[in-house]
Amino acid sequence: MKWSEISIHTTQEAVEPISNILHEAGASGVVIEDPYELEKERDNIFGEIYELNPNDYPKEGVIVKAYLPINSFLGETIEGIKEAINNLLIYDIDLGRNEISISEVNEEEWATAWKKYYHPVKISEKFTIVPTWESYEPVHTDELIIELDPGMAFGTGTHPTTVLCIQALERTVQKGDQIIDVGTGSGVLSIAAAMLGAKKVIAVDLDPVAVESARLNVKLNKVQEIVEVKQNNLLDDFHEPVDLIVANILAEVILRFHYDAAKLLKNGGYFITSGIIQNKKNEVRDALLEAGFTIEETLVMEDWVSFIARK
Ligand SMILES: C[S@@+](CC[C@H](N)C(=O)[O-])C[C@H]1O[C@@H](n2cnc3c(N)ncnc32)[C@H](O)[C@@H]1O
User: Fold this and answer.
1) Which of the four, 19, 44, 259, 304, has the lowest number of CB atoms within 10 Å?
2) Is pLDDT of 275 > 50?
3) Residue ranges of domains in the chain, CATH in brackets
4) Binding residues for S-adenosyl-L-methionine, per the UniProt record (predicted)?
5) Does ligand 1 have an atom closer than 6 angstroms to the CB of 261?
């Protein structure tokens, strides 16, 4: 099959919302070329894995690439993507150059293009994320390893918004907890919650591609007895009280269901939110306080913020 590669030159802060737009438009395998990756200091243990070629990265800004099947709707899909990206300006998201180019690639190139950027990464005190196609020997005996094949869903596990959520889960999950993961993507947060001792995790996503990917990764990590994945809009039709709700989703979406989260949580339960770009931080914090939460911790990485809120 022939694929079209759409390449968007943008900013760090726009990577996440643009990736979401691309996924929603049916794109497969988003690749992020961020020169920051070249500067990051890396543990020796990962040194040999991280041989990044500077020629693959822009000098400034970030390039987001995605792959769309070439069919009769391609023109409209691309127009829709451009419009949705331009709409991000309404939310004060800096789009940088916002240069968009399109080229054709064949199936083979597409299937491997994004994989070359994705390697084992230690993302928190306890967790290392390992792509299914890499072999990895644990460094510490108590290291928790999540094997992932995100396929076409969001969630390689290494995005700052995901890392912040996993760090927050490490601090809050108690043995025996009942948890809901809203917008599970590849299922990475549900898998982490299960490995941290949760008794039951319900992982929901609106996107059927994500649901399929999460189910696959849940099995891959042998937590299918604990994690149930289903297609659902946010917290619709949930009534049983839970101990913790985690959501790595855009700020605008969090503000659509924070009252539902407050209602559903047991007293003392945690609401972990991530996917919040710095300039939305105050708006989300105020909304959480208004819904009756107290903010226990605010975690920050690059331009992203995550809240550990408590009912
Ligand atoms: C930023 S990704 C997070 C993926 C994963 N949880 C992670 O942390 O890497 C956000 C996910 O939310 C899903 N999503 C967006 N709107 C949703 C909604 N209304 N209900 C459920 N899921 C939604 C998207 O399909 C996407 O998979």
Assistant:
1) 44
2) yes
3) 2-117 (3.30.70.120), 121-310 (3.40.50.150)
4) 162, 183, 205, 248
5) no
Which atom of ligand 1 lies at the shortest distance from residue 162's CA? 8
Known binding-site positions: 162, 183, 205, 248
Q: Rounded to 10 degrees, what is the CA torsion of 170, 290, 178, 153?
A: -70
CB of 221 closer than 6 A to ligand 1? no
Instruction: Evaluate: CB of 275 within 6 angstroms of ligand 1.
Output: yes
State how far the Cα of 85 lies from the Cα of 93, in Å rounded to an integer.
10
Ligand 1 atom nearest to 16, measured from its CA: 1
The answer to whether residues 234 and 259 touch, using CB atoms and an 8 Å cutoff, is: no
Q: Which residues are CB-neighbours of 56 under 8 A, at least 6 positions away?
A: 33
- Which residue among 249, 276, 299, 305 is best mutated to probe the pocket of ligand 1, counting the most ligand atoms within 8 A of its Cβ? 249
- Which of 16-25, 89-98, 189-198 holds the top average pLDDT? 189-198
pTM: 0.71
Other CB atoms within a 10 A radius of the CB of residue 288 amount to 22
Produce one character per residue of 44-79: b if its CB has 16 or more CB atoms within 10 Å, e if not. Answer: eeeeeeeebeeeebeeebbbbbbbbbeeeeeeebbe
What are the pLDDT digits (tens) for 247-273?
A: 999 898 999 999 999 999 999 999 999
- To test the pocket of ligand 1, the residue of 20, 158, 205 to mutate (highest count of ligand atoms within 8 Å of its CB) is 205
Ligand 1 atom closest to the CA of 247, numbered from 1: 6
CB 248 less than 6 A from any atom of ligand 1: yes
d(C-alpha 81, C-alpha 23), whole Å: 10
- Determine the distance from the C-alpha atom of residue 125 to the mean position of all C-alpha atoms in its chain, rounded to a whole number: 19
